[in-house]
# Entry
Amino acid sequence: MPTPLPHSARTSGDGRREANAASVLRAVLDHGQPLCSPSRAALLTGCNPNRVGYAMVANADPGFPGYGMEIADDIPTLAETLRDAGYATYAVGKWHLARDSSSSAAADRANWPLQKGFDQYYGVLEGLTNLFHPHQLVRDNSPLDIDEFPEGYYYTDDITDQAISMVKSLRAHDPDKPFFLYLAHNAVHAPLQAKPADIERHRGRYDGGWDELRRARFAKQKADGLFPEETELPARNAEDGLDVAAWDDVTADEQRLYARYMEVYAAMVDNVDQNLGRLVDTLDALGELDNTIIVFTSDNGGSGEGGAEGSRSYLSRFAHHPRLPEDWPADVDRDPELIGGPRSLVHYPRGWAMASNTPFRLYKRHTYAGGVRVPFLISWPQGLHRSPDDDGLRHQYQYATDIAPTLLELAGIERPGHRRGIPVQEQDGSSFAPVLTDPSADSTHPEQYCEMTGNRSYYRDGHKLVTLHRPGAPYDDSEWALYDIRTDPTEIHDLASSRPDLVKELAAAWEEAAWRNGVFPLPDASGALALRGPAEARLSRPVTLLPGTPELERYRSSRLIAFRSFTITLELESYEEGDSGVLVSHGDQGGGYSLYVEEGRLHFAYNEYGALRDTDAGPLQPGTRTILLAATAEPGLRWRFGLTVDGDERAAPDPVHQLIGMAPFQGISVGVDRKSPVSWPVHERHGVFRYTGALRSVTYRPGAPGPDSPEAVARALHDAAAAFE
# Structure
C-alpha cells in the first residue's frame, strides 16, 4: 500500500502503539484508482493518472499517451518538491511506476525512485513479489545480486528494517533535517504468504465463512459511525463471472480450504501492523512522533483475481489470455500445511475479497465502490487538534490526487510553478486541509472521472455514474448506472431510468474529462492494447550468458521464451565424472524449468505453475560438451520439448502448458538455482546447487511466435473483423 505509515492499535507486549485518539482523523470517502500503478501515480504527483501516463499498471506500453508509464519532467513528484525544500526523502517497498521492460540493470532508470525525487530506495520495482524469496531487490539504482536469503527471511520485516535504518541514520547525522518516508508494502498483494507464527494466531477465525464475516463487519462499521444506520448491505456479488456462492452452499472440504486462504491474508495484515508499530516506536524513541504527519491509505479495493475457488497457483490464475485451454492448471494440489508458505503462491477466493470490501460491491479493477473506496487515516499530534465533539470521522469525498497538495500545505511548502527552468503542469488535486480541521467543511474535490479496462465512472456532488463493462461489448449509454451515494453509499438503487437528464449530463462530463486527460483509446482486454511497442523487439534477441552472470531480470528473461518456440544451448568445457549442480534455471515455485546434473545423470525439471515434473535424461559421459534443449510452441498454449546431448536424443516430458503472463516470475540464472527454487526436492537436497564443473556458456535463441501468441491472436481478431466488413 502506498503510504507513509500510521499509528495502529496496540495490545501490550506485541510491539504496537495505541494511537493518540485526539490526533487521528478517519476519512471513509477517500477514493483511489481500481489498480495500483495509477493510484500511486496520482498520490505522488497530485495529477490524474491518465494525464501522468498511468492509465494501467506499469506492465504495458502500447504507444498511447495515457499508457506511457513515465512521469514527465514537468510533473514533479511529491518527493521532488519536498527534496527541493530541504527534506531528506526515502522510498521503501513497492514502486510499480517503472515499466517492467525498464527494470533491468541495463535499463533507462528515468522513472526509478532516485530519479523521481528520492535520496534512497530499497525494495521491488514491480507490483508483486514472493515475500519469502523476492525476485529482484533493488537498492538505490542497482539490482542486488542475491543467491539465497537467510533462514526466517520475510520481505515485510526487511523493508521495515530498512525504513527504520534510514530514519535512524538521518537522525544520527542531522538532528533537525525534516524527512519524507514513502513506505509502500507489497503485502497484501498476491501471492498471499505469511510467517507461520502469524498464521497460527488466526487459525479458526474464519471458519464461519465470508457471509458471516461480512455481516459482522458491516454491523461494526455502522456502530462505529462509518455509515448511517439506514445504510443497506448489498446482496452477495452476483454478476456473471464475479459472483460469490453462499458459504452454506460450499462443501465442508472447500470451507476448510477456503478458510485457510483467509487465515494467510489476515496474517499478512497482522504482520504489516506489527511492523507499523515498530516504525512508530522508533519515531517515538527519537522524540519525532508528535511532530510527524503519518498517513495510511490503500491503492485499490480487494482483489477477486483468485476466482470463485481461490488458487494455490496464483501465477496460473494470473495468466490472462483469451485462448486458455479447458485443461489449464488454475490450481495445484498442496498439503494444507504448506498454504501460505514458500512452496505455495496463494490467492484467496473472491468471496473473501467481497468480505474485504465490506460493504461495497465488486472488486479491484472495477469502478464500483469495491474497487475504488479505500481507507484513509492521518495523524499529527502536534498539528491536528480536535474539539471534544469532533469524532474524527470525515465523510467528505476526496481523491488520491488530493494527498500531495494536502501534505504540502500542512508542511507549509508551496509547490513551485517552475522547476529547473521548466513550467510545471498544474495539479488536479486540491488540499483538503480545511476538511481536517472542520468536520462541516465542504469537500474540496466536487467531481472526478475514473476509467479502468473499459469500466468508467463519474462523480459530481454526491451522484455517481458508473459502468460494469464487459470486454467486447459496445461503449454506449446503456452501460451507465446512477447512484446517489449520499443516501446510497453501497450503490444498490440505480436511478438511471428515473434521471435520464442527469445520466446524459454526467456522461457528457465524463467524456469531456476523458478527452482532457488522455483516457482514449478505451481498452477492455479484448483488443490490441495488450500488445507491446516495437521498441521491445530488441529484448527478444538471442543472448549468451556466461557463468557468474547475475540473474537476468524477470521481464528480459520472459521475452526469450514467452508464447514462442526457443532453444537453449549449453556449452561445457568438458563434462568430468563427479561434476554436479544446476546448469541453467529459470523460474521458481510458481513455475519454471531447470537442467541439472546429479550423481552423473542429467535431469530436466519442469515446474508447471507449482506441479513439478522431473525427467531423468540419462547419464552424462565424460567429455560431453553440448546439451541442447528445444521447445516448440504448439496450439493450446503448450510446449513440446526435445533434449539432446552431443547430438544424441534424450528423454523429455510430454507436452506441457506454457509459462505465460508473470511466469516464470524469477529470471534466468546460469550454473545455480537462486532464491526460490524450480525444484523444491533438489533445493532440500542441495540448496542453490552451484555447478561444480566447467560450464562455458548458455545461449538462448528465441524462435517464431507460437499459434497462441498475442501477435497471432491480434491477427485472428483483425481477420475476423475484416470478414464482416
Notes: The first strand starts at residue 2 and ends at 3. The chain has 16 helices and 30 strands. The CA atoms of residues 483 and 493 lie 6 Å apart. The domain at 2-310+346-416 is CATH 3.40.720.10 (Alkaline Phosphatase, subunit A).
